[in-house]
Design goal:
3-stranded mixed sheet, binds N~2~-(3-carboxypropanoyl)-L-arginine, L-arginine/glycine Amidinotransferase, Chain A, globular
Length: about 450
C-alpha cells in the first residue's frame, strides 16, 4: 500500500569506465598511492560493479546506474596547450607530461558518492529534489568531472517540475566539495519504502576555509570545507533545524580517512561510526539526536580497541552500504576486505549477534575499485524519490534483469582485460572509449552528454 510518505532510497552506482587504471593520483588516499602502477583490469572492475548492483536489485531494493566520463579527456589536454589531432594530443601529453595524461584519463567518476549531493523533495522549501554536482576541487583529476556529471544528472532527472540542478560550487580550496561522501541523510523509516518523511541532513567537513585558528590535518589534505557544506545546505533550501554539521577528526584524516564515508555511514535512524571519527564526538551525537526530534535514534559506535583506525582504513568497514531491506531489517553491504581483516571479521561476527538494527552482513568483491580507495559506498549515490518522481525520471537508467544483461554484454564487447599507466599513451584507447560511450548513451537514453558528442 502506498502512503503519502512512500519514497524509496535508490542507489545509483557508477559504471566503471573503460580507462580504469592505477595512477597514484590521490595524495591522502592510502590505497591509491600504495597501488600506483599496479596492472588494472577494467573489464573485471566493471563486471564487479555490475554484480553488486544486481545483488541489491535482487534484494528488492531500488537500483540505478550512473554513466562514466569521456576519458582520456582531450578537451582538457587542449586547454593545457597540447595541440594537433586527438591522437597527436595524446601522444604529446604522454611524452611531455605523462602524469597529466594519467590525470586526464582516470576513471575516477566510478565513485559516484562524490558525484553530487542530493536533497529529496520532502526536505526542501520548494518541494523539489535538488542536485549539486561536487567540484572535487582538491584533486585535479576529479575537478574535471563535474560538467559532465551535471549533464548526466540532468539527462536522468530532466523534469523541471520536480528536479532542480545547481552548478558545482566555485572551484578552489575554499569551497572544496566532495559530495555525498561527506553527507548523510537520516530519516525515521520503518521499512525500505518509508524514506519520505522530513529528514536530517548531516554534513561532515574536514576544515574551515576562512578561519585558520581552527584545527585541521597536517599530513594529508582536508578535502571538504565547512563553508562548502554550508553553501550546499543553503542551495538545497534545507530547514536549518534539520541540518547538523560536524568536523572530521584531523587525526583520522592524517591516517588516510580522506572522506567521512571511510569512517562512518548512516541510514534511517542509525549512525554506524568509529569512535575516533569526529571532533567532539559526543556533541555530534547529541546534535543528531536533537535534530531527530525525539524519535528513536541509534548510534552503533565501534571502539578503537576492537577495530583500530588503520584496520578501518584497510578493510573499509565504514565504506559499507547500510541499507534497509524489504523486511525492515538493516544490512551492511561490505567489501571482501572486511572478511580478510581479522579485527573487522571478529567485530562483524559479534555485531550481528547484538541487539542493534543492523541484522545482516553481506560481502561483495569490489577489489578493483578498492585498490584505488573506493569501497561499496564510494560506488553509489543515494537518491530518495517518491512515486511521482520515479515516474518522472529517465526509466532507462533503472536496473533490471534486462539492463543488467545489456550492460554485461556492452562491457565484454568494449573493455580491455588489462590496462597499465603506459597503455594510456595509446590513442586507440580514446576511440575504444568513445565508441563504447556512444553506445551507452543510447542504452541509457542520455542524449549527447559527452564533449565528443557535442562538437
Ligand atoms: O577521490 N580515488 C578516489 C577514491 C574515491 C573514494 N570515494 C569515497 N570515499 N566516497 C579519490 O581519491 C584514485 C585514482 C588513481 O590513483 O588512479 C582515486 O581517484
Amino acid at each position: 500500500m502506498s502512503s503519502n510518505n512512500t519514497a524509496y532510497e535508490f542507489n545509483f552506482d557508477g559504471l566503471v569506465g573503460p580507462t580504469h587504471n592505477y595512477a597514484g593520483l590521490s595524495h591522502g588516499n592510502v590505497a591509491s598511492t600504495t597501488n600506483a602502477n599496479l596492472e588494472a583490469k577494467p573489464k573485471e572492475a566493471a563486471l564487479q560493479g555490475l554484480q553488486k548492483m544486481k545483488a541489491l536489485h535482487d534484494m528488492g531494493l531500488k537500483q540505478g546506474v550512473l554513466a562514466p566520463m569521456e576519458r582520456p579527456d582531450v578537451f582538457t589536454l587542449r586547454k593545457l596547450g597540447f595541440t594537433g589531432t586527438d591522437a597527436q594530443v595524446i601522444i604529446k601529453a604522454a611524452k611531455q607530461a605523462p602524469k597529466v595524461l594519467a590525470a586526464c584519463s582516470s576513471a575516477s567518476s566510478m565513485w559516484t558518492a562524490n558525484a553530487c549531493t542530493v536533497a529529496p523533495s520532502s526536505d526542501t522549501a520548494d518541494g523539489k529534489a535538488h542536485f549539486t554536482p561536487a567540484n572535487l576541487a582538491n584533486k585535479f583529476h576529479r575537478s574535471i568531472e563535474h560538467p559532465t556529471t551535471g549533464r548526466i544528472l540532468q539527462a536522468m532527472f530532466n523534469d523541471k517540475n520536480h528536479f532542480v540542478h545547481h552548478p558545482a560550487l566555485p572551484q578552489g580550496d575554499h569551497f572544496g566539495d566532495e559530495g555525498a561522501a561527506n553527507h548523510t541523510r537520516f530519516v525515521d523509516n520503518k521499512n525500505y519504502s518509508d524514506y519520505g518523511k522530513k529528514g536530517v541532513h548531516f554534513f561532515v567537513y574536514g576544515k574551515y576555509a576562512f578561519d585558520a585558528s581552527k584545527p585541521e590535518p597536517h599530513k594529508f589534505p582536508a578535502r571538504q570545507t565547512f563553508e562548502a557544506s554550508q553553501a550546499v545546505a543553503r542551495l538545497h533550501k534545507l530547514d536549518s533545524d534539520n541540518v547538523v554539521y560536524a568536523q572530521q577528526s584531523p587525526n583520522v584524516i592524517d591516517k588516510g580517512v580522506f572522506h567521512n564515508d571511510v569512517i562512518s555511514v548512516g541510514n534511517g535512524n542509525v549512525l554506524f561510526a568509529h569512535q575516533k571519527a569526529f571532533l567532539n564526538q559526543m556533541q555530534v551525537y547529541t546534535d543528531l539526536e536533537r535534530a531527530f526530534g525525539g524519535e528513536e535514534f541509534h548510534v552503533v559506535e565501534v571502539g578503537a580497541n576492537d577495530v583500530p583506525v588503520a584496520d578501518a582504513v584497510k578493510s573499509y568497514l565504514f565504506n559499507s552500504q547500510l541499507v534497509t531491506l524489504t523486511n525492515g531489517d538493516m544490512a551492511l553491504i561490505c567489501p571482501g576486505e572486511c572478511e580478510t581483516t581479522p579485527s573487522v571479521k571478529e567485530y562483524l561476527d559479534w555485531l550481528v549477534e547484538q541487539d542493534t538494527p543492523i541484522k545482516q552482513v553481506k560481502i561483495y568483491d569490489v577489489k578493483q575499485s578498492m585498490q584505488n580507495g573506493g569501497g561499496p559506498a564510494c560506488l553509489r549515490q543515494r537518491i530518495v524519490l517518491n512515486e511521482t518522481e520515479m515516474a518522472a525520471m529517465n526509466q532507462s537508467v533503472i536496473m533490471n534483469d534486462q539492463l543488467f544483461g545489456t550492460l554485461n554484454t556492452w562491457v565484454k564487447k568494449h573493455y580491455r582485460d588489462v590496462l597499465t599507466e603506459d597503455d594510456l599513451a595509446d590513442p586507440s584507447l580514446l576511440i575504444e572509449s568513445r565508441t563504447a560511450l556512444d553506445e551507452l548513451t543510447q542504452i541509457l537514453n542520455l542524449g549527447s552528454v559527452y564533449p565528443f558528442q557535442r562538437v
